[in-house]
Amino acid sequence: VTPSRPSRKTIATTPSPAPFASPHPAWLPDAALDLVRTGTVAVLGTGRADTIRAELDGAPVAPPDRADLVVAVRDAVATAAELGLAGDLTQPPAHGYAVVREAGRTVVLGADDVAALHGFWAVVRERAVARLRGGDADARGGAADAVTTSAPLQPIRVLDHWDNVAVHPVMGQVERGYAGGSIFYAAGEVRADLSRVRAYARLLAATGVDDVCINNVNVHAREAQLLTDDLDGVARIAAELRAHGITTHLAVSFGAPVLLGDLDTADPLDPAVAAWWADAVARVYAAVPDFGGFVVKADSEGQPGPFAYGRTHADGANLLARALAPHGGTLVWRAFVYDHHQDWRDRRTDRARAAHDHFTPLDGEFEPNVVLQVKHGPLDFQVREPVSPVLAAMPRTRVALELQVTQEYTGQQRHVCWLGPWWEEILGFRLDGARTVAQIVAGQDGSNPAGGVAAVSNVGADEFWTGHPLAQANLYAFGRLAWDPTLAATDVLDEWIALTFAAADDAALRRLRDVLHRVMDDSWRRYEGYTAPLGVCFMVNPGDHYGPAVDGYEYSPWGTYHFADRDGIGVDRTRASGTGYTGQYPAPWRDVYESVETCPDELLLFFHHVPYGHVLHSGATVIQHVYDSRADAVEQLTEVEEAWSSLSDLVGGALPAAFDARVRERLAEQRRSAVEWRDQVRSAFFRRSGVPDASGRTIY
Ligand code: BDP
């Protein structure tokens, strides 16, 4: 019996009950701004310097050589003396900022106006964190004299919105959205009231995100028309984002020339098609002069692409890249290309191989303004996958890493699942044995061109932005780790707590910090603990991808199998006897993953088919691990609920009552769902294997 569960469609399309223009302030409540508004201030420069002035509204203004806090755009300042500083003027790094602390004053210098804005938010953040960590008065205002600089490692830091302009009959308004409707669109149009978009841009600017793609990569008819029929709407959105230094991008259909009825072909080598795209791009730039570029999902899950014309993906990407190049635009082409009609009876076919097989022969063939966007794992945003080998396999191509902030496969913003630790692991993974994924995609050592990082946003018109209020931390962390991937996830969580609960008094803030870490720190591993084991992936309900269905995709053409039978489980992806996928990795991973002896436990079933009695490095057998971790993870939820309840005296004060109520409602659903996962996975493997649970816990 499957307990009834809320359907994804309902969640995605429920309009927010809250007034559209007054959402939860997330990590920028007034109290956070008060940390910099108490002393005197001065802002120098134009452009987004006006945005900083607006943030500091209410603070006493003083001349720049005396103000306690000065924020300046580099070209608005000639000498250090103008800022009341001794010595030579500090130079901010390209695209970044310098913070100079001298004689109790704080001076921020941005390389340009957007960098000044980032530097401003850095000061707010530092003061909030100093307070959280019990810093003294000096740390809150101006600490000891020091100069710090910061610049983003990744040139592209983009959030992709899978928002449909018109509500899609199956996918709703936001595909894989778990936070209400779209902040951009309502009733098939760009919203008249874009106040939420502006508030969103403000939140993103404070993290370091600088690009947003405003519509779904699955481009349906109405979204395709954005390009031609609603550039005014796009321009209105771009204006809101621009105020906070965010550049607008559009996802377009490769088939647009045909889809929009103008031509009978979209062949990338046809001059009429190239001319069509050149015109379309010119119109976009006429409406949005600082437009960022296009994102394309082609030949994937039903989207049109160059294969239909016998052309390569380099031909396809270059067509659009050449149209964008004269305007300085970027073409992001997704590497998520695989056969979703595969023969599930054939054990040799392997979806995990697809992107590498398909794209690496094209390395060196892409125009310089093409960025290939690669999902972090070879399958599809699972709770555990190995890092995609494609990220290190195309040294002559700009490659961007794609993460998923929206929790499609990690609890759909009904379960607490803090993804900071997962991303820290991915970004820090030494994929070619020497360089981390973050360094590779940033082109840090110059041995490959720079790409960046992208992620699917988790935001909607929901009162708390993200459905589960604690899922805000994932959005915050994406921006921070995109800017600086060397940050520790636990410190990023501290930042989010310090900023979000800036109104709490010192004692309440410390308690909130303690409880939030208890609830969130291990939540990703806990989620992994009660869902699909040891990197085997999927086991979710087909379609909505929520809740357990052990064999949900096992006999379907999507290429996501576990091959569990009475003897064993897992996918043999070795060179010796399986699909050969391990051979796509550079050393040392090609050998580490090839052998059951060296393959890490958490990825064992991604790479190997093993008997249930196989002994893990942990000492447990595979089957006992399946039993134990599911039961243990559910037991841990009791501690989580107790920790949250211990905050009850803060409700209505430091912890807003509606925030608390939403978290409690979600914790109850998480427990219900986790119990369902535990019982279904444990029973399914007991029935297949016949091996009893050595711990004696009940199996249904
Ligand atoms: C899958 C989602 C699907 C997306 C696809 C993508 O289930 O809704 O369209 O990824 O990334 O995970 O294009």
Automatic annotation (TrEMBL):
Region of interest: Disordered: 1-21
SUPFAM superfamilies: (Trans)glycosidases
GO cellular component: extracellular region
Residue ranges crossing the lipid bilayer per the database entry: none
Record-annotated Glycosyl hydrolase family 67 C-terminal domain positions: 466-697
InterPro entries found in the cross-reference section: A-glucoronidase_C_sf, GH, Glyco_hydro_67_C, Glyco_hydro_67_cat
GO molecular function, one term: alpha-glucuronidase activity
Gene Ontology BP terms: xylan catabolic process
Residue span(s) of domain Glycosyl hydrolase family 67 catalytic: 148-465
Name the UniProt record assigns to this protein: Xylan alpha-(1->2)-glucuronosidase
Organism (species): Litorihabitans aurantiacus
Gene name of the encoded protein: aguA
